[in-house]
């Protein structure tokens, strides 16, 4: 007699299809390559868009609003009657999803289960509950924890241990250095090792199977980030987890690959036909510390030149909008609690710089002053990426900002030792109060083509 089973197939990054007894649900489905503008599938795949449009899911669950988990270009491929269950504390996202045409959109509540046929899905609390959630999926007597890409605190870990035993844990295995690459000359190279608490948490959960999850992408082929962004390889993860959990099996699921999980075994299952492998699939990450970043001028040459209207948009922001916005921004540290001079340098597609200097004081608009000196903070950015952030919802991790890549006077250098990179004035003015800019830009474009 065949045991009850759950089929689990990887889409990409944190995207999965779970199937049990004819019921199919998807988690964080992203059907794009690249996604989030510059995240290229690793290993490489091609999505059969026509075939995806024919797929029918009994429900789709989205863990949080970040664009690598909730992309309107991907949702646009789905039948509009598909029930969407979304964890998000911002009402604006639900309104946008409804504008896209979905008619069955339900906010998820932590620890409140959703039953879809034989599948029971319960959102669990992540460390940053205002942003993330995790998913517990139960079916056929099996218990799977999808950690997505969140962190787990001690209280939640105790609750999850009490929910065991666990058959499988989908664990976010890659510690991406999103902040460190913004100021590489001031960041220490991360050791190529798992964070200390990971193995202890996995030991407490004691799953039968561990899947390295929530990554599977690289940046543009020319990007120095590919050598500095991803410290952990699949091989390292498998080796360290296997040593910490000798009774567990580490299972790599590449895009499109599927497995059949039952109470005693894990066997291969037919792959997702609409996720087509391209080139070698047995690839791994290579980390080289801070990886000798090229000048921002060189990076800027990788992007298309702005049109005159686009350039005017960028300059209007820098000369008019940014100074006014600065007055309302908040900082985490105290570096900007005293007046500072900030130098912002924009690079065009030829690598030519345009340099602006601002006098900054707490609670006041930024004041343009070409002669202001000495400089106490510097930001460099390709003009094309600043335009994309303003009009297309570009995320911080793909803008190629370079912060404080210069030597300041001694007093400033000592003060900068305790400064927070994300207190950067441009970051605050672009992202301090924005929500869903990427999805809003997608929605505008998708509605225009209808």
UniProtKB/TrEMBL annotation:
Domain of life: Bacteria
Gene3D superfamilies: Ribonuclease Z/Hydroxyacylglutathione hydrolase-like
SUPFAM superfamilies per the UniProt record, alphabetical: Metallo-hydrolase/oxidoreductase
Pfam families on file: Lactamase_B_3
Descriptive protein name: MBL fold metallo-hydrolase
Organism (species): Pseudoduganella armeniaca
Lineage of the species this protein comes from: Bacteria, Pseudomonadati, Pseudomonadota, Betaproteobacteria, Burkholderiales
């Amino acid at each position: 007699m065949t045991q009850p089973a759950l089929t689990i197939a990887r889409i990409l990054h944190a995207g999965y299809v779970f199937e049990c007894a004819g019921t199919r649900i998807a988690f964080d489905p992203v059907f794009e390559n690249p996604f989030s503008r510059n995240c290229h599938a690793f290993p490489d795949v091609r999505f059969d868009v026509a075939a995806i449009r024919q797929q029918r899911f009994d429900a789709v669950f989205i863990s949080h609003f970040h664009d690598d988990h909730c992309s309107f270009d991907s949702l646009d491929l789905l039948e509009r009657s598909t029930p969407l269950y979304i964890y998000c504390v911002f009402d604006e996202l639900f309104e946008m999803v409804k504008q896209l045409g979905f008619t069955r959109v339900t906010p998820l509540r932590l620890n409140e289960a959703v039953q879809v046929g034989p599948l029971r899905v319960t959102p669990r609390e992540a460390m940053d509950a205002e942003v993330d959630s995790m998913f517990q999926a139960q079916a056929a007597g099996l218990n799977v924890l999808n950690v997505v890409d969140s962190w787990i605190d001690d209280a939640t870990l105790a609750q999850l241990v009490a929910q065991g035993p666990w058959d499988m844990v989908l664990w976010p295995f890659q510690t991406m250095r999103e902040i460190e690459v913004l100021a590489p000359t001031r960041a220490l190279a991360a050791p190529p090792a798992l964070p200390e608490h990971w193995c202890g948490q996995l030991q407490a959960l004691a799953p039968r199977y561990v899947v390295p999850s929530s990554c599977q992408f690289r940046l543009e082929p020319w990007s120095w980030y590919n050598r500095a962004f991803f410290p952990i390889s699949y091989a390292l993860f498998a080796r360290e987890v296997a040593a910490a959990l000798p009774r567990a099996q580490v299972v790599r699921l590449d895009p499109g690959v599927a497995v059949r999980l039952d109470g005693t075994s894990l066997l291969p299952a037919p792959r997702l036909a609409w996720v087509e492998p391209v080139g070698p699939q047995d690839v791994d990450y290579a980390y080289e510390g801070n990886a000798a970043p090229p000048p921002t001028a060189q990076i800027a040459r990788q992007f298309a030149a702005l049109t005159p209207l686009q350039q005017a948009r960028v300059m209007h922001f820098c000369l008019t909008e940014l100074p006014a916005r600065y007055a309302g921004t908040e900082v985490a540290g105290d570096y900007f609690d005293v007046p500072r001079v900030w130098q912002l340098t924009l690079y065009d597609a030829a690598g030519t710089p345009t340099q602006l200097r601002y006098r900054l004081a707490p609670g006041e608009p930024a004041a343009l002053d070409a002669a202001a000196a000495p400089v106490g903070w510097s930001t460099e950015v390709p003009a094309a990426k600043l335009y994309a952030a303003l009009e297309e919802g570009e995320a911080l991790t793909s803008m190629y900002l370079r912060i404080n890549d210069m030597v300041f006077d001694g007093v400033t250098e000592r003060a900068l030792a305790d400064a927070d990179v994300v207190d950067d004035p441009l970051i605050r003015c672009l992202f301090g109060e924005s929500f869903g800019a990427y999805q809003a830009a997608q929605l505008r474009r998708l509605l225009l083509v209808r």
